[in-house]
Design brief:
This protein is α+β, with helices and mostly antiparallel strands. It folds into 2 domains: about 60 residues, no CATH class; about 60 residues, Histidine-containing Protein, Chain: A (2-Layer Sandwich). It is about 55% helix and about 15% strand. The mean pLDDT is about 80.
Length: about 150
């Protein structure tokens, strides 16, 4: 701690000499008095910009939260439901897109194909059931080395 006292006093002394120099001190103090308010104004406007940006981001988050739940749509047709189910199922990169078929008949989704893990089958069926307009899900998915379930 004592090591820092000497340079601190030296810096304070140099600052005093700079501003109270008999030849140029008055001019330096006047310049500082002119520039100091502008420095605080700039800082204030930065705070204002940050606050404005935060408010805009908050409004965007509110908008997203309000639209998380999809508005009910009357009588979705089968191709629309199929597209919505495919969008939900194939959104995740770990889902084997080329190995799963999605068909919809009268609002009933049929999932066919081969997947690696039993928990993936459960995940896909649950996601398909959650899609608006789906009345039921017929699970015809199977694991490698097992026989494909037959259509009921």
């Amino acid at each position: 701690m004592r090591r820092f006292r000497m340079p601190l006093w030296a810096a304070a002394g140099a600052l005093l000499l700079f501003f109270f120099d008999p030849a140029s001190g008055r001019t330096r103090r006047a310049r500082l008095a002119q520039r100091l308010p502008a420095l605080f104004r700039r800082g204030g406007s930065t705070v204002g910009r940050v606050a404005g940006t935060a408010a805009a981001e908050g409004a965007a988050l509110k908008q997203k939260a309000m639209h998380l739940r999809e508005e009910p749509k009357p009588d979705l047709n089968d191709p629309t439901i199929e597209a919505k189910v495919e969008t939900e199922l194939f959104r995740e990169p770990h889902v084997p897109k080329g190995q799963i078929n999605v068909n919809v008949q009268d609002g009933v989704v049929q999932l066919r194909g081969e997947v690696d893990r039993p928990e993936l089958i459960e995940e896909l069926v649950a996601k398909a059931r959650a899609v608006q307009g789906v009345r039921d899900v017929e699970n015809l998915l199977h694991l490698p080395g097992t026989e494909a379930p037959m259509h009921h």
